[in-house]
Design goal:
This protein is an alpha/beta fold and 247 residues long. The chain has seven helices and ten strands. It binds 2-phosphoglycolic acid (PGA).
Length: 247
Amino acid sequence: MVYRKINVVGDYVSLSKAAAEFIVEAIQKKIGCVLGLPTGKTPMGMYRHLTELIKADNIDISTVTTFNLDEYIGLGPEDEGSFHAFMEKHLFSQSNFLKSNIHLLNGLAPDLKAECARYEEEIREAGGIDLQVVGIGVNGHIGFNEPGSDFNSGARVVKLTEATRRINSKEFKESAQVPLTAVTMGLRNIMDARQILLIAGGNEKSLALAKALQGPVTEEVPASILQTHDNLIVMLDKSAATLLKIR
Ligand code: PGA
């Protein structure tokens, strides 16, 4: 039953704190914990609290490995709009994760197919992902797996929908600068994680969440595949949960 796994935690600050605490628990539970990490508006608060907790409680992250979900094609760490730059700003520059343990897809790789294969191999070599944190798009995407993505998809090049480009244009000076394509972990890669934490806040996510968590499992709503994961934790603020049936 999906109902029991949904935690409604009040407002955005509570959501961010709860998610950060959950990550710290995962880190403390397993030496060499492998995290899958998202970017976007939603996890900003989570990363702020996570860096605070790491500092305040002196959490040992020297053996933690991270893999990011996705990256724009054509953007590198020097580009402000890249997810690499986002991660540097919100997490990596604020904490002492070992550089060699940080993994991101390279949106500047000359051979993107090889880049995706390399990434999957690195995840395998790390022993798989222990905790994958994901947000959700208003269209039900996770990572950059847009509606229609194959549930069995691996890491690959994808075309972004116009809706996604419009929403993400806030991070760019002009909307035309938002790349048309991206590299993303596939839905199979996400589902392969031993545990998944889905976080979402705000009213604009409520319909996508109702469809993803309590509607039919369909490739038209990529996040609906999460219903079939046997270790899914959902953390929402009150406004994101308004359309869910929760007992
Ligand atoms: P957001 O993005 O956190 O910026 O809303 C979530 C997503 O698109 O996965």
